[in-house]
Design goal:
By secondary structure, this protein is an alpha/beta fold. 32% of the residues lie in helices and 24% in strands. A hairpin with a 2-residue loop joins strand 6 and strand 7. Helix 3 packs across helix 7. The chain is globular and about 50 Å long. The structure holds beta-D-glucopyranose. Beta-D-glucopyranose binds next to helix 3.
Length: 250
């Protein structure tokens, strides 16, 4: 079986895809991006995925992994963040398998980013309990026991202190919306990570998502006991993790 797989990362504003060499975690093509169709409806998203797959000219036996901002259990999407609510309790894997005419594995976007980091990035030598958090419009999370993923943790939706859904307070989206300083944002993130420490006593936190590129600006303000490091796979993490899981699962 070819180690080349296709990773597709569906987000609220863009759908990104590339070929991935899953023996190294390197991209094996340029990264393509098509804006997410208005409303993020399943059929329209599937059509864009097909367009991207065609443009990539993937080998015919290449597996396809698709990650989404949704809880995904056994191929069924159970929630929807920044995409249509029609994804809720929807047969996403069946739709995409039919639309792409390939075997497709579907998973949560933060879980995919976590798999990329644990396989090729900042968590490749980790053991014990690792938590990855992606800081974007919302907060995504991935929990690992050694290298094993516990899927769909959704820590961004924890209620912490007076904050219902901590992502509305501590995400990069909240930082931009509230126009706060990096220090103020760091302190908000400290509340989030301190709470996770109480629950899980983790060995390592990995911080991913777009904001992790400028981690030097806010990391110094997050005082936690656990080692906290930036993600290494940066903005291709979802693509790389989705492709990796497709090879593992299909
Ligand atoms: C969603 C998660 C997703 C995260 C990052 C959250 O709002 O509930 O499923 O992983 O955003 O996209």
């Amino acid at each position: 079986m070819t180690p080349i797989a296709v990773g597709i990362d569906v987000g609220g504003t863009g759908i990104k895809a590339a070929l991935v060499d899953t023996s190294t975690g390197e991209l094996a093509s340029t990264r393509l991006r098509i804006p997410t169709p208005d409303g993020g409806e399943p059929d329209a998203v599937a059509a864009v995925c097909k367009d991207l797959l065609d443009q990539l000219r993937a080998p015919s036996d290449a597996r396809v992994g698709v990650c989404l901002p949704a809880v995904v259990a056994h191929g069924i999407t159970r929630s929807a963040a920044n995409i249509s609510n029609n994804w809720i309790d929807f047969g996403a894997e069946d739709l995409l398998t039919a639309a792409l005419n390939r075997k497709v594995h579907v998973l949560n976007d933060a879980d995919a980013a976590g798999v990329a980091e644990m396989t090729y990035g900042a968590g490749r030598n980790a053991s014990g309990v690792t938590i990855l958090a992606t800081l974007g419009t919302g907060i995504g999370s991935a929990l690992f026991i050694d290298k094993t993923l516990v899927p769909n943790t959704e820590f961004g939706h924890l209620d912490i202190g007076e904050y219902i859904d901590i992502e509305g307070y501590a995400s990069y989206g909240a930082f931009q919306r509230d126009q706060i300083s990096q220090e103020q944002w760091g302190k908000r993130l400290e509340k989030f990570f301190t709470h996770l420490e109480k629950l899980f006593s983790p060995d390592l936190f990995i911080v991913g998502g777009g904001a992790s590129k400028s981690h030097e600006e806010f990391f110094p303000f997050i005082k936690v006991k656990t080692q906290l490091v930036p993600a290494e796979t940066k903005n291709a993490a979802g693509i790389i993790g989705a492709a990796t899981m497709a090879v593992q699962y299909l």
